[in-house]
Write a structure and sequence with these properties.
The complex is a heterodimer of chains A (about 210) and B (about 725). Helices cover about 45% and strands about 10% of the residues of chain A. Chain A has helices at about 1-10, 15-25, 30-35, 40-45, 50-60, 80-90, 145-150, 160-175, 180-185, 195-210; strands at about 60-65, 70-75, 105-110, 115, 130. Chain A has a five-stranded mixed beta sheet. The longest helix of chain A has 13 residues, at about 160-175. Chain A is elongated, with a radius of gyration of 22 Å. Chain B is built from 17 helices and 26 strands. Chain B has a seven-stranded mixed beta sheet with strand order 3-5-1-12-9-10-11. In chain B, strands 7-15-14-13-8 form a five-stranded mixed beta sheet. A five-stranded mixed beta sheet of chain B has the order 16-17-22-23-26, sandwiched between helices. In chain B, helix 8 (about 350-365) packs parallel to helix 16, helix 11 runs parallel beside helix 12 and helix 15 (about 605-620) crosses helix 16. Chain B is globular. Chains A and B meet through helix 5, helix 6, helix 7, helix 8 and helix 9 of A and helix 1, helix 3 and helix 15 of B.
């Protein structure tokens, strides 16, 4: 992994973060070539060609399997899984609520486990299987948890709902849905400001007691 | 045991879109060429900006522009007419001058091609300030409070009559600022379609009010502005006006000639989109030995910003709730160096009810009269303010339903008398009321030859289930199954609807839908000729007449009935709490909420709304509190780890009960709104239960363990 990174990332620079890019570019052979023809260099600078080249160097290749579909992406190391899903893959079912892992709206499954996608960088999940709310139903057939949320009205505005449902499925899989109290405890990482908690608990209990495969 | 109470009634029509992630909220559109905006906030609380260095940000990769007050294009609606002076107070104007009015005030917007690049570049914007001395502490400023525009005082009967009563008390009650904190962050995508034409996707409780607000700020014809807000991830009052961040995105989109998306961070949600104001109140209340109220004096001082007066009238409840001949009120505002407050669920009444319903509870112990009984003794049979009859009121029935459901007879009058597994047990109750409003609205209904009905109205649905309510009304009126009815809302080009707020949507928009359906049926009768049935086979009639569709747009408004009757909705909340004597932890063991809000149109969603409001009230009672470091004027708990809202583990099963008797006058459905009453009265119910459990009266919310434990860490009682 270390070796692989060395090829992708530019060398570390001792300058401030603000101008490190430029220092790097000055040293790079590509820019040296451009620099030999001053007029071209000026033009390139005006057209932000340096930025475009830098942008490419700043990104890392990442392979994600999202809802059964393989994606080969080039992402900035600082891009979160949440923002990659929403802004690059147009999977807006995963919600942004706090960016700090404090609300659970962004909950997705990574290799079957629930995680806060806002606290997960895209580069951390290279090669992993991601399931989002869009991947839970089988075609038109809703997942039992989605059905139960509708039946028990486990939401109002619906914004925390995808995260609640992904968490709820994992909660049963983890074996943490054995009582009302246990469900409440293990669902407390997902805030619902509309206050649908009792209905959410009822929906999870029904799915658990119904013996559905989740 | 699975609780099945939540499964009764029509399920949310748009539920499938919400559980599959297909519902798109305002940040979830991607017009071609869209770029990202991130705001930079002031790090001082009061003063002026000396200089802003945005060069580093401008040079950062991907950055298209940085806008500050130094280079912001002229915003037409901000300008003062020639010859006139800049008004002393008014809505805060973004990037207008170098003045800093509150901590976190946006001083720049950075626009870049990706969110990450905009966010990073925003960190490179550096400002130098001339800081001035600030004040953000309400209690320090009480003496400088002033009466709001209109009337801060009122008197019915004799002032301070409570002092003459044999049983009386005078106490102060304080609520901290609370923040709406909807789960969806406020967000806007602004796209200029032409030099004077604009489309926005934004989080708003009213697409047409937002359209009109933008039109006035940018001096554009309102028909040139399209506002979309099909799904709103909660708002609770925080999306009833055009906020500065919306102006920022619109200005930015114009300048960079690209659509701009701006999503507030969670921290900005605490400073930039309003809050329920920190309010100090004092109640003097007195009664005769048989519990009859002699007088109430209710004073309140609420905080507002230095630049804008926000008046929510928390003292109104004392005038309107109980039969009492002598009531005088005094309400003032205190201007602080902080962003403006705004309406938050149960505005005014939720604050006032905490004081009034707590004081009544205190009085009940003095009188040795059951708190429910005390309220029945002082029940207002007619509106105490106007003397008018109520359009309908079944509050006494609500008291009984709630008391029976919670097991009120198990309550011991003596505080701290009951324990359960080492926890102290207490019961409490509190009531709420809110005006039952009805406004002007229109709806278009379109019957198509495939037998489906389309209903269109501009109203937003911030969560209560407005679409489901509309479909339920149309389904009953037209005799069509719900699956055959589609609705379209949250679009400013659709027929007139007011903002969703003040519990008015069902009465207002529901009435328009009802009327449009009635008018459509009449047209079908005419088409079918004499002898047509009330609910015919619409598709067959259309085919017979070679028509593809028949449509009607109807507009309705409240009528003269509003002059004849006083119209309110009521709630009563009952709670059983457990208090741990060693730690001071309060747990809600059981809660019962009863609403007297006329006919319940959509039982399943109404139940959820009542429970949801009650949970908001539990948050108000036990945990929600904005904390400011007054040395710097800055919020210290602007996130969900430090500003606590109820989570699943805090909430038991909550029983929601509806009296469910139609109001004969208010509208054709006989329905009253219930969003506010769901919350109003819950916080005092919890405080009263805590007193019953511990003997400790907490008059300053929230009721955190430190307030229940004495200095030695033991519970005083």
């Amino acid at each position: 992994m270390e070796d692989e990174r060395a090829h992708i990332l530019p060398e570390a620079d001792s300058g401030t973060s603000e101008n490190s890019r430029r220092n790097f570019l000055k040293q790079s052979t590509l820019l040296t070539a451009i620099a030999l023809t001053p007029a071209t260099a000026v033009k390139a600078a005006e057209a932000h060609v340096d930025e475009k080249i830098a942008g490419a160097f700043e990104k890392m290749p990442v392979k994600l399997e999202v809802n059964g579909i393989n994606h080969s992406l080039s992402v900035e190391p600082r891009a979160t899984l949440l923002d990659i899903l929403r802004e690059q893959l147009d999977l807006t079912g995963t919600k942004k609520g706090c960016d700090h892992g404090q609300c659970g709206a962004c909950t997705v499954h990574v290799d079957g486990r629930r995680v806060n996608s806002c606290l997960t960088l895209g580069v951390m999940v290279n090669g992993k299987k991601i399931t989002t709310i869009e991947g839970l139903a089988k075609g038109d057939e809703l997942h039992p948890m989605q059905e139960a949320f509708i039946k028990h009205d486990g939401f109002q505005c619906g914004y925390c709902t995808p995260g609640q449902i992904m968490s709820a499925v994992a909660c049963i899989r983890e074996g943490h849905a054995n009582s009302e109290m246990e469900i409440r405890e293990y669902m407390s990482g997902n805030i619902c400001r509309c206050g649908a908690y009792p209905n959410i608990v009822n929906a999870i209990q029904e799915v658990k007691e119904g013996g559905f495969k989740v | 045991m699975t609780n099945n109470q939540s499964t009764k009634g029509l399920s949310r029509i748009d539920g499938r879109l919400k559980v599959t992630g297909a519902a798109r909220y305002s940040a979830e559109f991607a017009p071609a060429g869209m770029v990202y905006g991130v705001l930079v906030g002031s790090t001082i609380t009061k003063g002026t900006i000396k200089s802003i260095d945005s060069k580093a940000a401008e040079r950062a990769p991907g950055v298209l522009s940085v806008i500050t007050h130094q280079n912001c294009p002229r915003i037409a609606g901000y300008q003062v007419e020639p010859g006139k002076k800049e008004p002393e107070k008014g809505t805060y104007k973004l990037f207008y001058n170098n003045k800093i009015l509150f901590n976190g005030q946006p001083i720049a917007i950075v626009i870049a091609d990706t969110f990450e690049r905009a966010l990073y570049a925003a960190s490179l914007v550096k400002a130098q300030y001339n800081a001035a001395e600030h004040n953000t502490r309400l209690i320090d400023q009480k003496h400088e409070a002033f009466a709001p525009e209109g009337d801060g005082t009122s008197k019915r009967g004799e002032a301070d009559a409570w002092k003459t009563a044999p049983f009386k008390l005078e106490q102060e009650y304080i609520i901290p600022s609370e923040v709406h904190s909807p789960m969806e962050l406020h967000a806007i995508i602004a796209k200029w379609d032409a030099a004077d034409r604009l489309t926005v996707w934004t989080k708003t409780q009213g697409v047409q009010d937002t359209r009109d607000g933008i039109a006035s700020i940018f001096k554009l014809p309102r028909e040139n502005i399209q506002v979309n807000s099909k799904f709103v991830g909660g708002a609770f009052g925080s999306a009833l006006q055009v906020w500065p961040h919306e102006v920022a995105a619109i200005v930015a989109a114009k300048l960079v000639k690209r659509p701009v998306k701006l999503v507030l961070g969670r921290a900005d949600m605490f400073t930039s989109v309003g809050y329920r104001p920190h309010t100090w109140q004092k109640i003097g209340i007195g009664a005769t030995a048989d519990g009859k109220l002699v007088g109430i004096t209710h004073e309140a001082i609420g905080q507002t910003s230095a630049y804008e007066d926000f008046n929510e009238g928390p003292i109104g409840v004392s005038r309107a709730t109980y039969a009492c001949a002598n009531v005088n009120t005094l309400y003032k505002l205190s201007a602080l160096d902080i962003g403006s407050p705004t309406w938050m669920r149960g505005p005014g009444e939720a604050t006032g009810a905490f004081a009034l319903e707590s004081a009544l509870d205190e009085l009940s112990y003095q009188l040795n009269i059951d708190p429910v009984e005390l309220r029945i003794i002082n029940h207002a049979d007619t509106d105490p303010e106007s003397g008018k009859p109520f359009s309908s009121k079944y509050l006494k029935e609500a008291y009984k339903l709630g008391a029976d459901a919670i097991g009120w007879s198990d309550r011991k009058t003596k505080p701290g008398a009951t324990a359960q597994n080492g926890w102290l047990v207490g019961y409490g109750m509190g009531g709420g009321m809110f005006g039952a409003y009805r406004d002007k609205a229109a709806a278009r209904v379109v019957m198509k030859d495939d037998g489906t009905l389309l209903i269109q109205t501009a109203v937003s649905d911030i969560g209560p289930g407005t679409g489901t309510m509309i479909v339920t009304i149309a389904s009953e009126e037209m005799g069509l199954p719900a699956e055959k009815i589609k609705f379209d809302l949250g679009d400013s080009s659709l027929p007139l609807a007011p903002s969703q707020g003040g519990s008015g949507t069902t009465a207002t928009v529901g009435s328009a839908v009802y009327q449009a359906c009635t008018d459509l049926k009449e047209n079908f009768q005419k088409l079918a000729g004499n002898g047509g049935t009330d609910k015919p086979d619409y598709a067959a009639i259309l085919k017979r007449n070679n028509l593809q569709k028949l449509e009607v747009t109807s507009t309705t408004n409240g009528g003269p009935e509003r002059d004849k009757y006083a119209m309110y909705a009521w709630s009563v909340h009952f709670v059983k709490v457990l208090v741990h004597p060693a730690t001071g932890v309060v747990k809600i063991d059981k809660a019962v909420c009863v609403a007297d809000c006329g006919h319940v149109v959509s039982p399943k969603t109404a139940r959820s709304q009542l429970i949801g409001g009650a949970i908001g009230g539990i948050g108000m009672a036990l945990m929600e509190e904005v904390v400011i470091d007054h040395r710097y004027g800055r919020l210290v708990n602007n996130n969900f780890a430090d500003y606590h809202v109820p989570v699943n583990a805090d909430i038991p099963q909550i029983e929601a009960i509806f009296v469910n008797k139609p109001d004969p006058y208010i509208n054709p459905m006989g329905a009253k709104g219930m969003a506010e009453i769901a919350l109003i009265g819950m916080a005092p119910a919890v405080a009263n239960a805590v007193y019953n459990a511990t003997g400790k009266r907490v008059r300053e919310l929230p009721i955190t363990p430190d307030k229940l434990l004495g200095k030695d860490g033991a519970m005083e009682s």
